[in-house]
Amino acid sequence: NAGVTQTPKFRILKIGQSMTLQCTQDMNHNYMYWYRQDPGMGLKLIYYSVGAGITDKGEVPNGYNVSRSTTEDFPLRLELAAPSQTSVYFCASSNTGTGNNEQFFGPGTRLTVL
Amino acid sequence: AQKVTQAQTEISVVEKEDVTLDCVYETRDTTYYLFWYKQPPSGELVFLIRRNSFDEQNEISGRYSWNFQKSTSSFNFTITASQVVDSAVYFCALKGYSTLTFGKGTMLLVSP
Question: CA nearest B103 in A: which residue?
């Protein structure tokens, strides 16, 4: 199993550009998550999904959109990139939404907006 | 709202020293889970341990041990005989009835 994979690993955007961060998991997990990690900070939840077709906002959703058309994929969309979105983005998945299952994380995408 | 506090921003030790990373949490949920994750310099997040609120037994796994005390709302992590490979950022996290909340992390630097 590859686990959780993310592409790209690095990206530089100009202000106002848009892009999609890809996330795929092969563990047949129902729950998927997007976090951002700013320097010296813990991870903050952007969006999450409890299954295909169902998404919900996390703590910091502004400026982002998500979709979940399949169990495996959970892309994160930035429509109008801003310098405040410079961060490392992590995708994660878990079998259930309870704490009885840990979340498995992808390797991260380092995004810089200039 | 739930909260996780890791008061130690950075700890530096010399190899073979023991080191304890502190984690204090706040939650009103009666059932909750606590986690520790490791983030080495390569950047990925590695799951280390999960503990539920009904199980206060300490746990030992090799050089790692965890002390969970509900009375003080703490879930501390000790590395015995630290090694250079232990150098990483360590995150404590809490999940009650809502989503997973992370502390800000403690950077551990182990020098030879």
Answer: A42
